[in-house]
C-alpha cells in the first residue's frame, strides 16, 4: 500500500519594532494602557506544523536553547486554543510544531508572538478550519498583546494593551539595523522597572503619535527619525546599562536614530538607505558592544503560509 506522508504547513512570521511606544498607567488587570505604532521587519521565525500522535514542539536556530518545549510555550497555547475553536475537543491538538528561530528570544521583537501567530495561521490551514480573520484576531489577542500585530504585519497603531489595531497610512520602506544583546530581558520586569522609576521620579512621557503618523505618510526616514520614541527605553537601559553603549555605537556609526525595541534589549537603528544600513551594521559589529547585528527592512507582511524546506 502506498504510504502518503502529508506535507507540513509552513508559515513565516515577522519580528516587530515599536516606532512609538507610549506607556500609560498600570490598569487593574496588570497591563498598562498603550498607544503604540508597530512596524513589521524582514526578520522572521518559521513554523512548520505536521500531523502527529500528540502535541510536541521542537526548536532550532537563534536562542533556541532558551525556548520552552512544553505548555508554557505560546505556540502550545495557540494550538490548544485553535483546537478548541475547531471543535477538536476529543482529538486535541495532535501536531508537531517545528520552530526555526531567526528572531532572538526575549529580545523585544515579539518573537514568541510571531510563533503564536504563525501557529494559528498554520493550523487554520492544516485542519481546514476556515476561521474568519476576526476569529483569528480574537484568538491572537487572547494569547498576547503583540500577537494580533504579528498576524497583520505592515505598520499599525496598537491601543488598549496593544492588541487593538488601527490602520496607519505608511509610504515607503525603511532600512534598519538591529543589534542583538548578549542575553534577554523579561517584558514584565521591564514594565515593573518603569513603574518603579515613575514612582521615584517623573521620567518624561512620550506625547502623542500624531507627528510620527504624519511622517509615515511622507515616507522620508530623515523626517521620521527624530520622532521615534519608546517610554520603556529608560527602564530597559536601567536593567541593562550596557545598552547605552549600544545605542551610542549606532548613532556614532551614522544611524539617523537609535532606540530600544519594545521592552528590549534589542536596539534598532534607523538608516537613510540600504547602503547606509550595511555600513552601520559593519561599524556597530566592529565595536563589539552587542552579540550580533542584522539589517532588516520594514514594513513587511504578517504571518503567512510559505513554500520551503521545513525545519527538521
Ligand atoms: O500580553 P503579553 O503576555 O505579551 O504581556 C507580557 C507582560 O508584559 C504582561 O504580563 C505585563 O506584565 C506586561 N505588559 C504590560 N502592559 C501591556 C503589555 C504587556 O504591562 N500593555
Automatic annotation (TrEMBL):
One Pfam family recorded for the sequence: GHMP_kinases_N
Entry EC number(s): 2.7.1.148
Catalysed transformations (reactions): 4-CDP-2-C-methyl-D-erythritol + ATP = 4-CDP-2-C-methyl-D-erythritol 2-phosphate + ADP + H(+)
Active-site residues, record numbering mapped to chain: 16, 146
Residue ranges annotated for the GHMP kinase N-terminal domain, each copy included: 73-154
Single GO biological process annotation from the record: terpenoid biosynthetic process
EC primary class: transferase
Keywords: ATP-binding, Isoprene biosynthesis, Kinase, Nucleotide-binding, Transferase
Pathway linked to the protein: Isoprenoid biosynthesis; isopentenyl diphosphate biosynthesis via DXP pathway; isopentenyl diphosphate from 1-deoxy-D-xylulose 5-phosphate: step 3/6
Amino-acid positions noted as binding ATP in the UniProt annotation, renumbered to this chain: 104-114
GO molecular function, one term: ATP binding
Chain ranges of the GHMP kinase C-terminal domain: 213-288
Highest taxon listed in the record's lineage: Bacteria
Job of this protein: Catalyzes the phosphorylation of the position 2 hydroxy group of 4-diphosphocytidyl-2C-methyl-D-erythritol.
Similarity section: Belongs to the GHMP kinase family. IspE subfamily.
Family annotation (HAMAP family): IspE
Protein name, per record: 4-diphosphocytidyl-2-C-methyl-D-erythritol kinase
Gene from which the chain derives: ispE
Amino acid at each position: 500500500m502506498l504510504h502518503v506522508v502529508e506535507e507540513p504547513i509552513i508559515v513565516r512570521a515577522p519580528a516587530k519594532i515599536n516606532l512609538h511606544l507610549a506607556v500609560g498607567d498600570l490598569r487593574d488587570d496588570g497591563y498598562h494602557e498603550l498607544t503604540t505604532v508597530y512596524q513589521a521587519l524582514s526578520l522572521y521565525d518559521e513554523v512548520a506544523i505536521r500531523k502527529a500522535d500528540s502535541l510536541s514542539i521542537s526548536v532550532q536556530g537563534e536562542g533556541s536553547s532558551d525556548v520552552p518545549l512544553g505548555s508554557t510555550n505560546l505556540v502550545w497555547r495557540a494550538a490548544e486554543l485553535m483546537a478548541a475553536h475547531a471543535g477538536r475537543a476529543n482529538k486535541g491538538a495532535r501536531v508537531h510544531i517545528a520552530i526555526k528561530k531567526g528572531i532572538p528570544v526575549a529580545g523585544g521583537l515579539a518573537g514568541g508572538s510571531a510563533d503564536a501567530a504563525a501557529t494559528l495561521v498554520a493550523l487554520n490551514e492544516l485542519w481546514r478550519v476556515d476561521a474568519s480573520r476576526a476569529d483569528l484576531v480574537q484568538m491572537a489577542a487572547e494569547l498576547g498583546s503583540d500577537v494580533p500585530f504579528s498576524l497583520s504585519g505592515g505598520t499599525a497603531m496598537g491601543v488598549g494593551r496593544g492588541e487593538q489595531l488601527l490602520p496607519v497610512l505608511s509610504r515607503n520602506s525603511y532600512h534598519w539595523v538591529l543589534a542583538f544583546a548578549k542575553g534577554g530581558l523579561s517584558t514584565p520586569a521591564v514594565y515593573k522597572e518603569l513603574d518603579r522609576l515613575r514612582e521615584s521620579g517623573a521620567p518624561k512621557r512620550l506625547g502623542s503619535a500624531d507627528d510620527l503618523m504624519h511622517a509615515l505618510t511622507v515616507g522620508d526616514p530623515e523626517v521620521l527619525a527624530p520622532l521615534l520614541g519608546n517610554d520603556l527605553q529608560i527602564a530597559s537601559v536601567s536593567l541593562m546599562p550596557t545598552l547605552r553603549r549600544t545605542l551610542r555605537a549606532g548613532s556614532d556609526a551614522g544611524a539617523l536614530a537609535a532606540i530600544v525595541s519594545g521592552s528590549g534589549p534589542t536596539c534598532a537603528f534607523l538608516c537613510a538607505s540600504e547602503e547606509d544600513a550595511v555600513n552601520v551594521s559593519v561599524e556597530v559589529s566592529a565595536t563589539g558592544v552587542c552579540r550580533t547585528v542584522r539589517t532588516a527592512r520594514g514594513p513587511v507582511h504578517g504571518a503567512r503560509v510559505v513554500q520551503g524546506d521545513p525545519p527538521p
